[in-house]
Amino acid sequence: MTLHRRLFLGAATGLALSLASLPALAQDVLRVGSYPANPPWENRNAEGVFEGFEVDIVTEIANRIGRTAEIEGYDFRALFVATASGRVDIVISSLTITDERLESQSFTQPYVEGAMGIGVRAGSDIHGLEDLRDRRIGTIATSFPEAWLNERAGEIGFAANNSYDTTANMLTDLMAGRIDAVVNDVVGLRYAFQQMTGLEVAHEIVTGERFAMMMAKDSPLLEPVNEAISAMKEDGTMAAIFERWMGVAPAEGSLTVTPLPIPTPGNY
């Protein structure tokens, strides 16, 4: 065999081995989609790095299933397309489990029971849901608060429900007086209002919503991810992450410390 032929075969063999390893390398990554401005759940900091409660959770999940979490930012409504199209493996963004969403997506077990808050300018005469009548309100497009309010539009009687792609734009309009109130996750609102002056949470709305991570319908990763969440609840990791970001320990018997099965319609 000539030297030229030996070199060619060696190079070809090396290329084949490299190509063969590509799928394995790709499988080592857990592709995570996230809304990048949702502290303390998730947020891209000044250095462009994602941090937050759910960031720590998904990073730990990735470690436990032998992968590395790589997080990419999306507008909130784009998160649903990202899972359905296979661009990401999992989504974090304080997402509420609903029967409607379970028709086209899968969710992990919940780990926090959420509530909504009504955010207003300081000194507002809005103190509860009844005060939203004839007012202009704002919500995030395709979010649980948007759907919840629209379903009760006749009962509440608000003048308009403006739909926003970003929390920043929504709160900017609130401060400028273009809307009278916003309705969003109460934890996120309180966190944001610590950094902003002139805004406050006027009222908390307890809805029983449950936050979880979203995946493509019947994803093969759903079972191992859910098992990792159960293990984190059992060994105290989930509670430690909760306390780090929320400032208090989770309540005994809460969703944060109670292992649960994968949600199904009507059972979550």
UniProtKB/TrEMBL annotation:
Chief subcellular location: other
The UniProt record lists the keyword Signal: yes
A Pfam family: SBP_bac_3
PROSITE patterns for the chain: SBP_BACTERIAL_3, TAT
This protein's record includes keyword Signal: yes
GO molecular function, one term: ligand-gated monoatomic ion channel activity
Protein name, per record: Amino acid ABC transporter substrate-binding protein
Classification via CDD domains: PBP2_peptides_like
InterPro entries, A to Z: Iontro_rcpt_C (IPR001320), SBP_3_CS (IPR018313), Solute-binding_3/MltF_N (IPR001638), TAT_signal (IPR006311)
Keywords on record: Signal
Domain Solute-binding protein family 3/N-terminal residue range list: 29-249
Domain Ionotropic glutamate receptor C-terminal stretches: 29-248
Subcellular location: Cell envelope
Family named by the database record: Belongs to the bacterial solute-binding protein 3 family.
GO CC, any one term: cell envelope
Originating species: Pararhodobacter aggregans
Signal peptide range in chain numbering: 1-26
